[in-house]
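Apologies for my clumsy wording, but are you able to produce some protein sequence, whichever is easiest, and the tokens describing how it folds?
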Amino acid sequence: MHMRTTFFTAAADDVGERLDRVVTAHCPELSRTRAQELIEAGLVLVEGRTAKGSSRVHDGQRISVEEQPRAPMTAQAENIPLDVLYEDDDVIVINKFAGMTVHAGAGNPSGTLVNALLGRGQGLSQSADLLRPGIVHRLDKDTSGAILVAKNDFAHAKVAEDFRQRVVKKTYLALVEGTLSEASGRIELAISRDPMRRTRMTTRRSIILQNAREARTDWRALARIADTTLLEVQLHTGRTHQIRVHFSALKHPVVGDTLYGAASRLHVGNIALEPLERNFLHAAKLAFRQPRSGAWIEVRAPLPKMLHDFLRQLAKVSHEDPAAIDATLVAYL
């Protein structure tokens, strides 16, 4: 966006609205976050004076907006501990914990996986986006487990191509609401951004957009505990929120995933379990070709203690044997 100044006069529809909302309405190329940044920088004037974003607009007020481009953000090194599952000269596999974002964005500049990697002095492949060095694929913020990062441009190109060709194998553990009676299954539903709720994806044909992308998810039941099913899930495509939106479409949302319809607390009979406060979704296995030698590498990420304890508690309150859950996880991981 080039630097320019926009002038407008508050109309009847603007009266009583917050200044930041009015600026966004009259300058649609600006996000509300960017409008707030410009207001805080003193680049938005009301009758020639600076104002707060929360101030209310009056009829006929003259408003000017100096639309300066945001300076490019770059990822900064931070001292954040990481759990390294595998590492060589070309790639590194991290066991990402739930709650950590993979890379920074506007309004989210720190505490990310990229910040942590740079903090350990890690060399990473370069990217046109200065906030995403090394990042070849992503995990949702509340999804834990194995994520592969490229240390150099050669490795990045090789691994990215393997992802495109679906050579990389990504396998997850998911606990979903309800009992899936079949031993295994496949979900093939196209996915697009939900135009009504931009933080969500959707498979609904009635509102799905022309840019919907085909998606395939395979699953296998590992255990049935109370009114939930523990699944091994293999992705054959890597769409945003794919596992979450696919199982939500089947009316079996991932436990803890309130964005896609899961209950905030699971109930077993008249017993309400403590909220999980994350999605029960974990990237348990990652298999890929070493970019230089072509050797096949398989990495496993242990199930986080929080998720393991939740399974045991679920078994206990449903009068099932928690040791059977332990045995299932030992055999799987």
Summary: Residues 170 and 286 are 5 Å apart (CA to CA). DSSP finds seven helices and 17 strands in the chain. The two ends are 49 Å apart (CA to CA).
